[in-house]
Design goal:
single chain; Pnp Oxidase, Chain A; 2 domains; seven-stranded antiparallel β-sheet; 8 helices; about 25% strand
Length: about 230
């Protein structure tokens, strides 16, 4: 797995207006329904709405909160597996409200029947651009570099005997890294912890032209952002 397929998967999710939600029904069978996602930006969390009154989804989630969701766009397929929870606080409901929901919830964002369902991903299977990878989110949320590169999937480890900027104290196989040295000087684990994130140095940084480098541009910035947001100290 390299950093780029993660951001490509994120882009697929952002482009999808609907997804397929899998839950376990009252008799222990899997059920699948189509849902419209709300402001979903990445593979880590997915949000959608449903009604509290008489909702099969709510009944099933209360009995078994394990779920999966699939995003499909052209030849790309993103499957996320995790747990779901029902959110009813007004701040969350207001944040995810959009005008098109009025057809389902006539009283608007304060409608007592309106709630938000959040899926927190634990496992991901990505088929993007004819490339496949599957992994546990907890493995992705292990800091492997200062800039967001996923060193565990980098071919330079073997071809250039590179163990990464953290182990090499800011000097990977190609020489001294300004990004790594900056992080070390600020006593930070990675760039996502910096008050200046993402700075111009990080935005323009590249370790070369290989498949591990930012393609799409900014892929490693998103990994740093995820490390900062989701890693529990």
């Amino acid at each position: 797995m390299n950093v780029n397929i993660i951001e490509k998967a994120n882009q697929v999710i952002r482009d999808c207006v609907a997804a397929y939600l899998g839950l376990i029904d009252e008799n222990g069978y899997p059920t699948v329904s189509t849902v419209s996602t709300l402001k979903t930006q990445n593979i880590f969390e997915v949000y959608f709405s449903t009604g509290l009154a008489g909702s099969n989804k709510v009944k099933r989630i209360k009995k078994n909160n394990k779920a999966s969701i699939c995003f499909h766009n052209k030849d790309n397929n993103i499957t996320l597996v995790g747990t779901v929870e029902i959110l009813t606080d007004q701040a969350t409901k207001s944040h995810f409200w959009r005008d098109s929901l009025i057809n389902h919830y006539p009283e608007g964002e304060t409608d007592p029947n309106y709630c938000i369902i959040k899926l927190t991903t634990q496992q991901a299977s990505l088929w993007v651009g004819y490339e496949y990878t599957a992994f546990a989110i907890e493995d992705l949320l292990k800091v492997q570099s200062r800039c967001g590169l996923l060193c565990s999937g980098c071919t330079y480890q073997e071809s250039h005997s590179c163990t990464g900027c953290i182990e090499k104290n800011g000097t990977p196989f190609w020489g001294e890294c300004d990004v790594a040295k900056c992080c070390m000087g600020k006593n930070l684990d990675h760039c996502g912890q910096c008050n200046d994130f993402p700075c111009d140095v990080l935005k323009e940084f590249s370790c070369g032209d290989g498949s591990e480098c930012d393609k799409p541009k900014g892929a490693r910035i998103e990994i740093c952002r995820a490390w900062a947001k989701y890693i529990v100290k």
